[in-house]
Amino acid sequence: MHATPVDALDVEAAIEHWRAHGYARLGPVLDAARLTELRDRADAIMRGEVVVPGLFFQHDARTGRYEDLEHGKGWEGPSLAYRKIEKLERDDVFRRLVDEPRYAPLVRAAYPGSAGATVYRSILMSKPAGGGTPLPWHQDGGQFWGLDREPVCQLWTALDDAPEDGGCVEVLPGSHRGGLATPLGGVVPEALVAASDADAHAVELPVRAGEALLIHNHVWHRSARSLTGAQRRAFSVCYLDAATRCRRRKGAPRTFFTAFADAPF
């Protein structure tokens, strides 16, 4: 599927490609002014110049190895080397992209019959100028997510160019049709990766800044380190059917932010 501006996008064709292959290219979504606003906001949050209560931070691995990522440390001081920042629906600037009206028809089509959509997570994923940490083959769902039904729909929007050697998303087309590789979800075990010959069949999805991808949560996807010497930031929102409930038993169950409240769903 060729990149097509979202304003001219055939939603039915995009959803058909997404259902068959686990992804669809949506083409340019953000103009230069919005890209500048979002990049500046991301940098200001990382540097601590803007403080948004309740955000989740994870610093990049100092070794560049996924296995060496540290968990639970949160904010570690001003740095542009944060690997991810979650709960950005709490931020006014990023929330406008969460609620992007042009995304609503895609999410509605992904969850037919739903009365609306909520947000499981909205997350800035960053590969710092030094290359960042590779993300192995994984799926976004399973028991670890603690939901009463599986999420299927996420919108991934590039804030910087992500070329083939710049940490672009890679997918194993059609892999979502097999469901979860393990009940827990998350990283796909190496034995299953080898058995499926996933590395040989990976498809790279390079994008320019401002372009978006529609990704099925269960399609196997990954990204390598960036070799361009430039920062690679992307904003990903996982949308849920509004009827989805948290099954967590430790502490109070999560409630989810309502998306597209001002757009017809």
The major sheet is characterized as: 8 strands, antiparallel
Total of domains:
1
How helical, in percent, are the residues? Answer: 10-25%
Oligomer: single chain
Shape: globular
Low-pLDDT segments: 1-5
Summed over residues and divided by their number, the pLDDT gives a mean of 92
CATH superfamily: q2cbj1_9rhob like domain
Task: Give the CA-CA distance, first to last residue.
Answer: 25 Å
Order of helices and strands: HEHEEHHEEEEEHHEEEEE
CATH topology label? Jelly Rolls
**Annotation field: number of helices:** 6
Task: Walk me through the structure.
The chain has helices at 11-21, 32-47, 92-98, 104-110, 190-196, 198-201; strands at residues 23-28, 56-59, 82-86, 117-127, 135-139, 153-158, 169-171, 186-187, 203-205, 211-216, 221-223, 232-241, 257-259. The protein has 265 residues and is of the alpha+beta class. The strands form two sheets. Strands 1, 2, 3, 4, 6, 10, 12 and 13 form an eight-stranded antiparallel sheet that branches. α1 packs across α4. It is globular. The two termini are 25 Å apart.
Question: How do the strands and helices of this protein lay out in sequence?
Answer:
Layout (H helix, E strand, L loop, with lengths): L10 H11 L1 E6 L3 H16 L8 E4 L22 E5 L5 H7 L5 H7 L6 E11 L7 E5 L13 E6 L10 E3 L14 E2 L2 H7 L1 H4 L1 E3 L5 E6 L4 E3 L8 E10 L15 E3 L6
Antiparallel strand pairs: 1-10, 2-3, 3-4, 4-12, 4-13, 5-8, 5-11, 6-10, 6-12, 7-9, 7-11
Summarize the structure.
The chain has 265 residues and is of the alpha+beta class.
State the main characteristics.
globular, 265 residues, alpha+beta, 6 helices, Jelly Rolls, 5-stranded antiparallel sheet
